[in-house]
Amino acid sequence: MSGDIARVSELVRKLIREVPDFPEPGVQFKDLTPLLADAEGLGAVTDALAATAADADLVAGLDARGFLLGAAVATRLGVGVLAVRKGGKLPPPVHSVTYQLEYGSATLEIPADGIDIAGRNVVIIDDVLATGGTLAAASRLLEAGGATVRSAAVVLELTALGGREVVAPLQVSSLHTV
Ligand code: AMP
């Protein structure tokens, strides 16, 4: 492990707040607020995520913490950012995808007007890779719009939940794993 990667991983470990039993019993919620509010933490994470995505010409940030990280990464790369929103937030027309959660389903949307992502090389940025359902759905949504999803990058990967296998063959980089 290079010094830089080890340093970023340690910063992430140190600056994430663990919240037991949120939003429901049995879930160990990883709160990135202290990391994002820390100048060194935000800078290091932004640089490390951007380093995984040098060939992207558009960043897609996933609702909601992926918006903050995605915009920061896009600025570093010198490209724009597209917010992938939860269902019902955007005015029509939209492209949307609905996917299964453990209980019920969820929808992600992007505008169908005002931005043409056909032919764009996209990197998806989010905070946490858990079961992988959100990332896989976002990738399908962007590809349905004609984009090529080159890779994805997250700050934290919860390996026990197997998200990496769910999103395969999409390559995901994570800065810290637990
Ligand atoms: P998943 O679709 O299960 O990979 O979940 C990914 C999304 O849910 C990410 O956008 C995360 O923000 C959020 N998420 C899932 N599990 C956690 C967790 N334990 N702590 C914080 N955020 C989580």
UniProtKB/TrEMBL annotation:
Assigned EC number: 2.4.2.7
Keyword Hydrolase tagged: no
Major enzyme class: transferase
InterPro entries from the UniProt entry: Ade_phspho_trans, PRTase-like, PRTase_dom, UPRTase/APRTase
Residues of the Phosphoribosyltransferase domain: 56-155
Keywords for the protein's UniProt record, in alphabetical order: Cytoplasm, Glycosyltransferase, Purine salvage, Transferase
Pathway linked to the protein: Purine metabolism; AMP biosynthesis via salvage pathway; AMP from adenine: step 1/1
Keyword Metal-binding among record annotations: no
Name assigned to this protein: Adenine phosphoribosyltransferase
Originating species: Mycobacterium syngnathidarum
